[in-house]
Amino acid sequence: MNDTKRKIVIGAIKVFSKSPAASIEEIAESIDLSRRTLHRYFSGKAELITEITRYTTSLCLVKTKDAVTSSNDPVEQLKTMFLSDIEDGYQFRFLYNYTESIYDYEESSQEFQEMMDIFRNLLKRLSEDNLINTKYPLDWLESFYFSTIDAAINLIQKDNINENKIKQMAWFSYWNGITGKSENAN
Prior knowledge:
The chain is mainly α. The chain contains 10 helices and no strands.
């Protein structure tokens, strides 16, 4: 992907994360390009969204793999993944706002499926090691994870001055929610 195309993709992710119905004109304006220039790279909004979905999926997979290889401790792996997902909130939000059904997308995207398999295997490992409450089903743990991240992203967009505090509160909330052991939230 060349620099201009990447600039368009990244700019569009930011615009769409704040305004999902944004027009091509708004995207072009946000990155100081003309609509005509943007159309040299993408024929329309649908093609741009398809490219962004590919780009964000690939980026999120890399970040997920990095989180898992960052430590041998599964709790640290989950925490690293969680904080990274908040940090990369634009990409995270795009994937969940622009895929009609995350489960349908998982079936059609090898990279997305791989990312979710890594995430789910980590949750299973934590459960098998009794590090999280084993009474919670995997789909609840997953849904709670994504909704907590989304809440943190919303707050950061409103008040990015307290970004680190918001990220830590979100992690504390998630970890306490899946373990019931608030002393392990650090």
